[in-house]
Design goal:
heterodimer, A: 117 residues, alpha/beta, Immunoglobulin-like, 18% helix, B: alpha/beta, 6-stranded mixed beta sheet, 7 helices, 22% helix
Chain lengths: 117, 300
């Protein structure tokens, strides 16, 4: 029985890609990193912290948004469903450079990403 | 809805338009200027995104644009009934004292407009960092409505919440404000940010703007004038027309035309290119709106 459970667990881990964690920081008026490369179909957790004041993090095309507050870790969990480049930006007005506080998520097609590895 | 070129506009009226909102400067018209005709048809001028206090490469001559716009409006053959500024009167600053100084500077220039009324509203640069505190001290309410010659005007605040939303209380206020109106009443809405999702990944949207559109939707004659995107733009959501005005500081790129929403680079050979104002003429009996765009400087 234990062999069967172990086999199922191994099978499941082989089928579902492991969740990837990407840590990001936000401060006026940049995110770090500003470009995040992900792989289509691979689950990801974005962990964001603010180094100064309240910011927002939103990716309208992916339907993602969260508040990023100092002293807290904000988490966004999702599975990229399609390849492409998706812009993110701060949507809580934070000062004179607010309009430039942006970046992009680049989702590579699964096959292309694997060839690149 | 007609739209004219600058040349056509100049042939028609001489110069172009601005719009303000708040009633702050009621009674600025001078005795030597023709007053608006008492007839039902009238026009107003929309000015937007003056960003008073901006200093940067996108417009090294930013300080001359507002005074130039004031001169253009004052040169109109007939004064508009009112002028509305659709937000970002000042450029943002972290310094509360400097923010108030910029608002005073804006007020001094706007007060030179020789029109019966100047109406104002806030943009995120004026109001988001302090939730509208300095703006209200200087200019009054962030949202309001008024009636003028058969048209119901509403100014909405989608900037003092730094998330760029209207909020539940304001949506309720809008519903109550419109409730007494006959359905056929012409309604003009002024906002800073677009109420619809023009380009959300450039922050050209209002988080809960669709809720305001839902409230407005039962009324068949609704037109929205807004700013924020620093360019002329026209779009409809069903029967509701939305018109963005050019800026008076620097132009921004067309939605999605480049990777980032960075300003169109300053061209020293063509200072003022892409900047402008608009006048809006209407006959509430129709009701229809004729927009006339005018460049602040030669576009040649």
């Amino acid at each position: 029985m234990s062999h069967v459970l172990l086999s199922l667990a191994l099978l499941a881990s082989a089928v579902a890609p492991p969740e990837r964690v990407v840590r990001m920081t936000a401060r006026r008026f940049t995110y770090s990193p500003e470009v995040i490369e992900l792989e289509e179909g691979v689950p990801v957790i974005l962990e964001l912290t603010s180094l100064d004041r309240d910011h927002g993090f939103t990716v309208p095309e992916l339907g993602l948004r969260i508040d990023v507050e100092p002293g807290k870790t904000a988490q966004v969990r999702f599975v990229p469903q399609k390849a492409g480049t998706f812009l993110f930006h701060c949507d809580i007005f934070c000062g004179t450079g607010h309009e430039e506080m942006a970046g992009e998520i680049v989702v590579k097609p699964r096959k292309e990403a694997r060839r690149g590895n | 809805m007609g739209q004219t070129t600058r040349r056509e506009f100049l042939q028609l009226a001489g110069v172009g338009g601005v719009v303000f909102a708040s009633g702050l400067f009621e009674g600025c018209a001078s005795a030597d200027r023709p007053r608006p005709a008492p007839a039902d048809d009238f026009y107003f001028v929309q000015l937007s995104d003056t960003h008073w206090g901006y200093k940067g490469p996108a417009n090294p001559e930013a300080a001359v644009e507002l005074p130039r716009a004031v001169e253009l409006v004052n040169a109109l053959p007939k004064a508009p009934d009112f002028v509305i500024f659709t937000g970002d009167l000042t450029h943002t600053t972290d310094d509360d004292t400097e923010r108030r100084r910029r608002m005073s500077g804006f007020r001094a220039h706007a007060a030179r407009l020789r029109v019966p009324a100047i109406r104002l509203m806030a943009g995120e640069h004026d109001a988001s960092l302090d939730r509208g505190a300095a703006y209200q001290e200087n200019f009054g309410s962030l949202r309001y409505s008024f009636n003028h010659k058969g048209v119901h005007f509403v100014a909405l605040d989608n900037v003092s919440d730094p998330k760029g939303i209207l909020g539940d209380a304001q949506i309720d206020w809008l519903s109550r404000d419109l409730a007494p109106l006959a359905k056929a009443t012409p309604i003009v809405v002024f906002t800073h940010r677009p109420l619809f999702d023009l380009k959300p990944d450039w922050d050209w949207a209002t988080g809960d703007g669709s809720r305001a559109i839902d409230v407005l939707h039962p009324y068949p004659h609704v037109t929205v004038f807004y700013g924020h995107i620093h360019q002329e733009h026209h779009q409809r959501t069903d029967h509701i027309a939305h018109h963005a005005a050019r800026s008076l500081v620097f132009p921004l790129p067309a939605p999605g035309s480049q990777a980032k929403r960075t300003p169109i680079p300053w061209d020293p050979a063509h200072p003022g290119r892409g900047l402008g104002l608009r006048d809006v003429e209407t006959d509430p009996r129709t009701p229809d709106y004729r927009l006339r765009e005018i460049a602040l400087a030669s576009e040649a």
